[in-house]
Amino acid sequence: MRDFGGIVERVPARSVRPRSADEVVEALREARTRRLDAVPRGCGHSTFGQSLTNGICLDMRGLAGVEDVAPGHAVAAAGTTWREVLAATLPHGLAPPVLTDFLDVTVGGTISAGGVGGTSHLHGTQADHLLALDVVEDGRVVPCSPRVRPELFGEVRGGLGRHGVITSATLRLVPAPERVLTCTVPCRDAADLLRLQDGLAADDVSGQAKPSPDGWRYEIKATLYGDGPVPPGTTGTEELPFLAFADRMRPDVEELVALGEWARPHPWAMVFLPRERAADVIETTLKGMTPHDLGLSGVVLVKALRVGHVPMLAAPPEPVLFSVLKTASPGCASVSDMLAANRALLDRARAVGGTGYRVGAIPD
Asked: What is the pLDDT of residues 220-278, one digit of tens each?
């Protein structure tokens, strides 16, 4: 069995597809009796074997669905994808404050990782917007929240399933816009990109570095949910229904599947950098990179975050998420060379007070 990263392979002793929290309890009891690891798996979108095990694989997609949609909240089972969450909440004019760029990942999976999106510069991570969780711990299902078992609540958010298995989450919801306006803003360099991100009055912001004949060019996608002013320096705009914007990766994914790129190994490197040192690390990293090192469908993203209250995330103050999302395409750098570069990036990040985002493929 592999995950999206396509680098690590493990064969589970047994795969279980629980359809209730009680069945999760039973599977964990079996794992304990047999002295096996038990690892929850949603859509398997991890990149370095985080959702794989030689023990018992808990296929959480059997535990899916959204209930109790109301102003301010909804309850989602852990195996529910964010696409399914939106399908349940948008008819009520509601959506989570933070969405991942790719919707076909699960609620439990991204909460266990933290969950970063384009609105994280305002709202932090997805794990910051949970009202309550149900978690299997010590052979029973227990509720937790900021007031009920707050220590457990802190450990499972961003804990990669190591401190308990999330079975359901009460999500905070906010009014969703009907349409949005996305603006493209070119930037001179990484420092200019970060400066503009800090000052933009936009609801969703994502920075990107793209290879060009002259090196790397930088741009920001700034998306307005309301009638705010178009950012200075905008060179293009696109108006979309909110759902089309939230699901904007679908056409790209379909193309990558058709080209075979989606199935290739993805040695992704993702690090949190302190704001004051981020531009230097980004520029130094990209100066030593070529399109050959990134892969044919690789992407470089830069997202400034608001610090939330997720202790297990271990991000520095005022963090910038620098993501070098590589694909081991034919004729490009090998997986081993990409992993070595990932390790060098992690060392560079740690040298300035940064940390690794543990969903990436970085050998430690």
From this structure: 999 999 888 999 999 999 999 999 999 999 999 999 999 999 999 999 999 999 999 99
Q: Which residues of 354-364 are buried (b: 16+ CB within 10 A; e: fewer)?
A: bbbbbbbbbee
Domain boundaries 14-60, CATH class: alpha beta
Q: Helices 275-287 and 190-199: crossing angle, nearest 10°?
A: 140
Question: Which pLDDT score is estimated for 364?
Answer: 66
| Matching fold, domains 14-60 and 62-175 | no
Sheet arrangement for strand 165-172: 66-70, 73-77, 165-172, 130-137, 140-144
DSSP state of 318: S
Q: Look at residues 185, 203, 360 and name the one whose alpha carbon lies nearest to residue 194.
A: 185
For residue 323, which amino acid is it? Answer: S
β-partners of residue 220 are 185, 207
183 vs 180: CA distance, rounded Å: 10
CA distance 34 to 285: 45
Low-confidence ranges of the chain (pLDDT < 50): none
With contact defined as beta carbons under 8 Å apart, do 224 and 246 qualify? no
Phi and psi, residue 147, nearest 5°: -110, -25
R_g over Cα of the chain: 20
- The whole model's pTM is what? 0.94
Euclidean distance between CA atoms 220 and 123, whole angstroms: 18
Whether CATH 3.30.465.10 fits 62-175 = yes
Q: Which residues of 267-283 are buried (b: 16+ CB within 10 A; e: fewer)?
A: bbbbbbbbbebbbebbe
CATH number at 179-356 = 3.40.462.10
**Domain map (residue ranges) of the chain:** 14-60, 62-175, 179-356
CA atoms of 97 and 119, how far apart (whole Å): 7
